[in-house]
Amino acid sequence: MIIVPEREIASLVTPADCFSAVENVFAAMARRSASNFPVVREALGHADAIYGFKSGFDRESLALGLKSGGFWPGNASRGLTNHQSTIFLFDADTGQCRAMVGGNLLTALRTAAAAAISTKYLARQDAEVLGMIGAGHQSAFQLRAALGQRPFKRIVGWNRRPEMLSRLADVATEHGLPFEAVDLDRLGAEADVIITITSSFAPILKASQVKPGTHLACMGTDTKGKQEVEAELVAAATVFTDEVAQCVSIGESQHAVAQELVRPTSIVEIGRVVAGLHPGRTSGEEVTLFDGTGVGLQDLAVASAVVNLAVAKCVAVQIEI
Ligand code: NAD
Predict the structure, then answer these.
(1) Backbone phi and psi for residue 84, each to the nearest 5 degrees, phi listed first
(2) Is 67 tagged catalytic?
(3) Residues enclosing ligand 1, CB less than 6 A?
(4) Is the ipTM of this complex over 0.90?
(5) What is the pTM of this model?
């Protein structure tokens, strides 16, 4: 069995590697050769922790396994990351455990890749202004990945606590782009692409604030009850997702579906666009919305890429179990 420790991941894999791995597995899902298994997510009743696992199998790449982990709110006070995860890969021919891979950085990279893939396929080609809602840990990854998809000229951002926006300003400076903190009216009026990445349980962005032709990637809502945008905005958009079953239960679409503003059958898996089975955006006026909930197959895809790189670069730790 191969072990790739968390500390090795950053030097092994690039955001571009993760983008390709996730793009390929989204297409495999659309071809129905890859599927996610039911998600387990439970409050432990200990340490205020939420624990669970996401698993699946891709018959094209033979990636089989699970990501196990969750959220331990007391970790920060111990100098640890609150979100903790580990990815296990199994040999699809024998069921033997093939690898154990640190999953913290990979979760950030695969989530950023998903929104960037949606931007590649769904944003208008002439998009110039990128809007960010949310300035937590994940926001910097989302911003960096999105900047590679269109020649954005400037970035506007909003966060409930404005002092956190310096994180986004720093990334903008890295890329030589201007950054401005704005209110939500200006953000919606100016941004051609909007990424939401917060832990909100109430709508932040209203339908009336978004202009025609905008592409939104709603990435923060990954649990029942969370919400980042008004249900009316989801209803007004052409909705794409990583997986329909997951987005209608724990994604941004859960509210619009519950209010019968959106039918689950009208939601398109982004893999269909990647695989050339759906045209994606059909006009410059259309609002497109990607509801990215985060599926286990994304984790398996990026972990498989890491294992291959670790073996090639001789940094994989091999043990007998
Ligand atoms: P974080 O704790 O570092 O940052 C949280 C962000 O949400 C901050 O910008 C904070 O100001 C904002 N926020 C919190 N409560 C809010 C509220 N009530 N209203 C408005 N804004 C609020 O978290 P992070 O690591 O940046 O992750 C952000 C969210 O993304 C989390 O909720 C996480 O569960 C989710 N996430 C989703 C995926 C996916 O695949 N879809 C993957 C990773 C993380």
Answers:
(1) -130, 130
(2) yes
(3) 107, 111, 134-139, 159-161, 164, 197-201, 204, 219-220, 222, 292-294
(4) yes
(5) 0.97
